[in-house]
Amino acid sequence: MSQERETLLKVWTILGILGALIILYITGIAFIFDSHTPLNSILHHGAAFVIFLLFILHTW
Q: Is the full-model pTM beyond 0.90?
């Protein structure tokens, strides 16, 4: 049962990283096209922070 939980946690972690990378990519494109809004900035920095935290969780 523990192995199942660990595998499930790793799968959700990887999916979270991929989702955050997509948000990071989209908001990065918005910055390139001079679409600077506070929401884009918050999403961009938040996604980078989430990726950082999930990589730590994944390696743990």
A: no
